[in-house]
Design goal:
Blueprint: H1 2-5, H2 9-22, H3 29-41, H4 50-61, H5 67-78, H6 83-95, H7 102-115, H8 119-138
Helix pairs in contact: 2-3, 2-4, 2-5, 2-6, 3-6, 5-7, 6-7, 6-8
């Protein structure tokens, strides 16, 4: 189970990012590139082998019976000092394939609740991430 597979802050952050990308059961090229860039940006490429971590994630992910409990475990391991930043990374990853499926919307809400982020803050971050995505893809300010 995930409690034995995830033992460090770096692993927890990596698995949270994977969970955001794979919530819709698909990993588009854009999502893979975005998650790779995020993992490198936060320096996890120095301590983890991403291929090993994705294998671990795929091995236990079907056994996640309570997503809120899973998210709580990950957040406890991460122990974030900047909750809005973490939430914005998750929102960016969920939106990286240009589709926000209902289960992804629920995931973002659950992550925000776990992080103690208000509905108003959630809406602002999601709007920001959506607008940034529009600017990046359509070059439209």
């Amino acid at each position: 189970m995930y409690t034995t597979a995830i033992q460090s802050q770096d692993e927890a952050l990596t698995h949270l990012f994977f969970h955001c990308c794979l919530k819709d059961k698909e990993l588009a090229d854009a999502e893979l590139e975005t998650v790779s860039n995020k993992l490198v940006t936060v320096g996890l490429n120095k301590t983890l082998n991403f291929k090993d971590e994705i294998v671990k994630y795929r091995e236990y992910s079907a056994e996640i019976t309570d997503e809120n409990e899973y998210l709580q475990y990950l957040v406890e391991q991460i122990n974030p000092a900047n909750e809005l930043a973490l939430f914005s990374y998750c929102a960016e990853l969920v939106l990286s394939d240009d589709i926000l499926a209902p289960e992804e919307e629920t995931l973002l809400h659950n992550i925000a609740e776990t992080l103690g982020i208000s509905n108003e803050e959630q809406d602002i971050v999601k709007r920001l991430m959506i607008q940034r995505k529009v600017v990046e893809t359509d070059k439209l300010f």
